[in-house]
Design brief:
The protein contains nine helices and nine strands. It has about 220 residues and is of the alpha/beta class.
Length: about 220
């Protein structure tokens, strides 16, 4: 790999940008392509699938190898509650980085969460350093508008691939009213999954955590319509 390509690849990965290294199998120039950049028809389908799945592959014509580099997917949970405890263990098994943010120090304790990345700060402050992006899933679980509403707005603004919020339909309707008064569009609010998680009839915190993780994975891996 040429030095200029390697330097650009390192820079893109540091910025959490997905990128593919395209190399000709029978020789030729290497290059980098990011999602949305133009590609030849013989590359386009395999390139799109590589970005969707995060798996490298050979192009459909067999002439190029596509080595894809994806940012590690992160899950940010607002609320150090029982569901968060279960979700932290499941996320680790599934290979996702997970961070829990909760300013309530009685809940956000190492005794309850062990080695989980736990931040006992207001989300407004914590997310200035731990920024949301298109490869982050946000899950809000506190039922407290003072804690939940700001990260929801930030997630919508930054384009998180998944945004889920705990609460009944009645609770979510009130949440939508508040956020619309705060300038968030109805179209953006419609992308929030609420009640959070797939409808599997989960009742316990563990079952609800399973439904949340399943919905996150489905959102991450779904094929474009």
């Amino acid at each position: 790999m040429e030095l200029a390509i390697l330097e650009r690849l390192d820079a893109l990965r540091a910025q959490r940008q997905p990128v593919a290294h395209i190399s000709a199998i029978e020789g030729g120039e290497d290059r980098l392509l990011c999602p949305g950049e133009p590609a030849e028809p013989e590359l386009a389908s395999a390139l799109a699938e590589a970005f969707r799945t995060g798996k490298s592959r050979v192009s459909e014509d067999g002439a190029h190898f596509i080595n894809v580099y994806m940012p590690p997917v992160r899950i940010v949970v607002i609320g150090a509650v029982h569901i968060s405890q279960a979700l932290a263990g499941l996320a680790k098994i599934a290979g996702f980085d997970l961070t829990i943010i909760d300013p309530r120090t009685a809940f956000a304790t190492p005794e309850r969460f062990g080695d989980v990345n736990l931040i006992a700060e207001w989300p407004d402050d914590a997310l200035k350093l731990h920024r949301l992006d298109a490869y982050t899933a946000l899950v809000v679980l506190t039922h407290d508008p003072k804690i939940d509403d700001t990260p929801l707005k930030m997630a919508l603004e930054t384009g998180c691939f998944y945004i889920g919020a705990l609460g009944s339909r009645k609770t979510h309707a009130k949440r939508v009213e508040r956020l619309m008064r705060d300038g968030v569009s109805g179209e953006a609010l419609a992308t929030i999954s609420a009640p959070v998680g797939l409808d599997i009839g989960g009742v316990t915190p563990q079952e609800i955590a399973v439904s949340i993780l399943a919905e996150i994975i489905a959102s991450l891996r779904k094929k474009p319509q």
